[in-house]
């Protein structure tokens, strides 16, 4: 993985995924490791972000790297018509590593092909969010003590949800049983179902949040307004699911509620104080996991 871009979760083998999780655990215990004082990392966010950008920049800061970049592409020369290709060719002359988010599916793969330094995908449209997946796996491993043979409920926007797409690919390495809950309009795209069928992985589909008592992980997602071209369609499905505290009463003790965040209405705030709510710790795990990803790609020697 040294000097290799991370564009899709498919870029990592199961051994590489487990190595990142082990490194993340090391960084959770040793969060200040200024090993990159002579390095520059570019943080290019063409699309809005709170957690991904700030946890990446915290990770970069704790590793001692200098950070360049932008949080809003309107402050870059993109507004003058500069192409992704030219932007990336320039930035890869300035930085040792690029972290990039863009609304266009495939844009980060394209950027990695133009770049002379590794590129990390911080989310490309509805396609992939591999670093979110690694922090999700870290969170699942921490809360369940294992990754294999778990019953995973994925709820909400399964059509456009890039976190769902990356996560189901990664979890398919660990013999899961999936329960997909989505309105018809936002159901999981056919290519992902074919992928699971080819791998012989059991999955069930429902439009209601039934059988929560079976869940080890309940992964809620937001219906993403920004992915809809038709505002009326968004209005129809935006409040399809709302998780309330009372709905957790009969769930297993080990069950944890995850959400990549931000949430809108899909988890009522009355869930936040339930010990089964894990989404804020999950977001914190992003710092350790992203320190691990950066250090693995940069080939850092840990003390
Ligand atoms: N989970 C996630 O990608 O959050 P942000 O959009 O705030 O980065």
Summarize the structure in short.
The chain is an alpha/beta fold.
Topology of this protein?
Blueprint: H1 14-29, E1 40-45, H2 51-62, E2 66-70, H3 84-94, E3 97-102, H4 107-114, E4 119-124, H5 130-144, E5 151-155, H6 162-171, E6 177-181, H7 190-198, E7 203-206, E8 217-220, H8 231-237, E9 256-258, H9 279-298
Parallel strand pairs: 1-2, 1-3, 3-4, 5-6, 5-8, 6-7, 8-9
The structure holds phosphoric acid mono(formamide)ester.
Residues 49-52, 123, 132, 260-262 line the site of phosphoric acid mono(formamide)ester (CP).
What would the keywords be for this entry?
9 strands, Rossmann fold, 36% helix, 303 residues, five-stranded parallel β-sheet, binds phosphoric acid mono(formamide)ester, alpha/beta, four-stranded parallel β-sheet, 2 domains
Question: How would you describe what is shown here?
Answer:
With 303 residues, the chain is of the alpha/beta class. It folds into two domains: 9-129 and 286-297, 3-Layer(aba) Sandwich (Rossmann fold), CATH 3.40.50.1370; 130-283, Rossmann fold (3-Layer(aba) Sandwich). The chain has nine helices and nine strands. The strands form two sheets. A five-stranded parallel sheet has the order 7-6-5-8-9, covered by helices on one side. Strands 2-1-3-4 form a four-stranded parallel sheet, with helices on both faces. It is globular and about 55 Å long. The mean pLDDT is 95. Residues 49-52, 123, 132, 260-262 line the site of phosphoric acid mono(formamide)ester (CP). Phosphoric acid mono(formamide)ester (CP) binds next to helix 2.
């Amino acid at each position: 993985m040294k000097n290799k871009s991370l564009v899709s979760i498919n870029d990592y083998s199961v051994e590489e995924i487990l190595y990142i999780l082990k490194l993340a655990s090391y960084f959770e215990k040793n969060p200040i490791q200024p090993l990159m004082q002579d390095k520059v990392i570019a943080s290019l966010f063409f699309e809005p972000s709170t957690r991904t950008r700030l946890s990446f920049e915290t990770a970069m800061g704790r590793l001692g790297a200098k950070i360049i970049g932008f949080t809003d592409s309107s402050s870059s020369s993109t507004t003058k018509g500069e192409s992704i290709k030219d932007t990336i060719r320039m930035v890869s002359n300035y930085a040792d590593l690029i972290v990039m988010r863009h609304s266009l599916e495939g844009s980060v793969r394209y950027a990695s092909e133009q770049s002379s330094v590794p590129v990390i995908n911080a989310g490309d449209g509805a396609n992939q969010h591999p670093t979110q997946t690694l922090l999700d796996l870290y969170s699942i491993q921490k809360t369940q003590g294992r990754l294999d043979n778990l019953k995973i409920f994925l709820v909400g926007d399964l059509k456009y949800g890039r976190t769902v797409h990356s996560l189901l690919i990664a979890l398919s390495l660990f013999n899961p049983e999936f329960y997909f809950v989505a309105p018809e309009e936002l159901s999981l795209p056919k290519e992902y179902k074919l992928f699971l069928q080819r791998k012989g992985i059991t999955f069930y589909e429902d439009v209601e949040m039934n059988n929560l008592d079976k869940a080890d992980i309940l992964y809620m997602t937001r219906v993403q307004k920004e992915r809809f071209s038709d505002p009326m369609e968004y209005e129809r499905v935006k409040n399809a699911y709302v998780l309330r505290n009372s709905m957790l009463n009969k769930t297993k003790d080990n069950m944890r509620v995850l959400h990549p965040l931000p949430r809108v209405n899909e988890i009522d705030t009355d869930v936040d104080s339930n010990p089964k709510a894990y989404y804020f710790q999950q977001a914190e795990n992003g710092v350790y996991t992203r320190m691990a990803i950066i250090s693995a790609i940069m080939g850092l020697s840990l003390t």
